[in-house]
Amino acid sequence: MVSASSLDFYDAELRAHHEHLRAAHRIAPGEAVLDIGCGTGLTTREAARAAAPGLVLGVDVSARMVERARLLTTAARIDNVDYELGDVQVHRFAPAHFDVVISRFGTMFFADPAAAFANVASAMRPGARLVLLVWQPYHVNHWVQAIDAALGDAAPPAAPGADPFSLGDATATAGLLDTAGFDDIHLEDVHEPVLYGHDLDAALAVIQGFESTRAALARLNPDQAAQTVARLRDMLAAHYSEEDGVRLDSRSWLVTARRRLRPSAMAHRRS
User: Fold this and answer.
1) 164, 105 contact by CB (below 8 A)
2) Residues near 85 by Cβ (< 8 Å), separated by ≥ 6?
3) Do 258 and 179 contact (CB within 8 A), yes or no?
4) Is the Cβ–Cβ distance between 169 and 175 less than 8 Å?
5) Burial environment of residue 10 by CB neighbours within 10 A (0 to 12, 13 to 18, 19 or more)
6) Do the beta carbons of residue 36 and residue 98 sit within 8 Å?
7) How far apart are alpha carbons 174 and 51 in whole angstroms?
């Protein structure tokens, strides 16, 4: 069972990256907004406040996340938000509807990224804005390297479709968006930490809940698993300070683009 506090921990972990997303999307009153991989809805609620009276839709594949997002939105008395459980790759959106599409680390796990971004593009009005945060490649993200080092030989390879660094190659990602129907594509380096808070036990519990960590620990006998968990805690303690709590280095891309104005635009650009 995943607790509400564990679900909300993700927002605190990514708060330094989050500020870059919020500064870039520039949502205006009256705009229709889609939030891909909305999680517990922090980004969706912020978008709704900026877009009001415009409507905001948050979509996520996790039923627990969507349920939590609805509860938090009701508690905040925000009424221009809707949430749907679904896979954006195949979800049926109203065509040419959204003025802005945002995502905070919610677009890296598509089984078919080309189909997913083409579907997103079809739901956007011509000239609509796309603003995403995605992880840069594994080798520049110390947070995951530190976790894998603590897991040691038990660390499993990324499963197909479960690679959080699948959009880390800037050239490949720009090409993917170009093919899907986007122009004015930019990837900006974001060098911020992930922040796991001042409670080492809470941080450890969250990391143990990661799918990759659970898989690694499941491969070990009880003694080996206990030793591995102790290494994870030692790693977190080594990155702890009174000022910041547990702070691990990370890098992401802030991806911005616009829905192509007309089908001939790509041919024009390449002529």
Assistant:
1) yes
2) 59, 60, 61, 62, 63, 66
3) no
4) no
5) middle
6) no
7) 27
For 244-260, write each residue's pLDDT tens digit.
999 999 999 999 999 99
Q: Which CATH superfamily is domain 4-140+160-196+245-263 in?
A: Vaccinia Virus protein VP39 (3.40.50.150)
From residue 26, alpha-carbon distances to 20, 22, 23, 39, 204 in Å are 11, 7, 6, 21, 35
H/E run at residue 34: strand 33-36
Tens digit of pLDDT for each residue in 38-58? 999 999 999 999 999 999 999
Strand partners, 34: 57, 101
Residue type, 21: L
Name the pairing type of β-strands 124-135 and 182-197: unpaired
Largest CA distance in the chain: 64
Token representation of residue 5: 């506090």
Residue located via tokens 């030793």: 227
Q: Could you give the percent of the chain with pLDDT greater than 70? A: 92
Q: Is the pLDDT of residue 126 over 80?
A: yes
Assigned token pair, 105: 């680390």
Measured between its terminal Cα atoms, the distance across the chain in Å is: 56
DSSP state of 136: -
| Per-residue tokens: 29 | 């009153």
Amino acid at residue number 266: M
pLDDT digits (tens, 9 = 90+) for 192-238: 999 999 999 989 998 998 888 998 999 999 999 999 999 999 999 99
